Amino acid sequence: QHLDEGLLGFLSQLRATALGAFGGYLKAEFLLSVGVFLILLGGFFLTRQPYGLLLALGLAVLDFIPVIGAGTVMVPWAFVALFTGDLPHAAGLMAIWGVIALFRRVMEPKFVGDQTGLSPILSLVSIYVGMKLAGVLGMVLGPVVLLIFLNLAGMGMFRGLALDLEAA
């Protein structure tokens, strides 16, 4: 209540940007999980996996969690199938997991970029830099921080700094 109206408007816009970017990231991850579910469902249908729908749903939910993913279940499952002598089943599981990994690597920057407003390359760079700096939390917050920074620059927050650097 005691803040200047200009500062209050700025903080309000900053909050809306951060919440929009975070919500966009969650929506992108949800869309990726739906894609993973469809890949799993198709793969389990082709390999005639019993309880394929239930397994696809469970693995898609696990895939929504950035650290866990479907590979934490599918890779050990394939190794168990390999060691028990079921080579076709192990190969099928690894093929499904390979398609999922390829899908996530190719589509994640696109989906995150579309949902947050970042270009796919900036989205990919912000996810990678965030992961290197702060692990899983950085992976989630990287696009959000970049989007906030870009909006601050668009609002003219760094105009004085740019003029000082230009003068120097």
Topology:
Elements: H1 5-46, H2 52-64, H3 71-83, H4 87-116, H5 120-154, H6 159-167
Helix pairs in contact: 1-2, 1-4, 1-5, 3-4, 4-5
Shape: elongated
Structural class: mainly alpha
Count of strand segments: 0
- The helix fraction, in percent, is over 70%
| Cα distance spanning the termini | 39 Å
Mean pLDDT comes to 85
Q: How much strand content do the residues show?
A: under 5%
Stretches where pLDDT is under 50 for at least 5 consecutive residues are: none
Gyration radius from CA atoms, angstroms = 21 Å
Order of helices and strands: HHHHHH
Main sheet: strands, sense, barrel: none
Number of helices: 6
Task: Please sum up the structure shown.
By secondary structure, this protein is mainly alpha-helical.
Keywords:
168 residues, mainly alpha, 6 helices
Notes on the structure:
By secondary structure, the protein is an all-alpha fold. It is built from 6 helices and no strands. Helix 1 (5-46) packs antiparallel against helix 2 and helix 3 packs antiparallel against helix 4. 26% of the residues are buried.
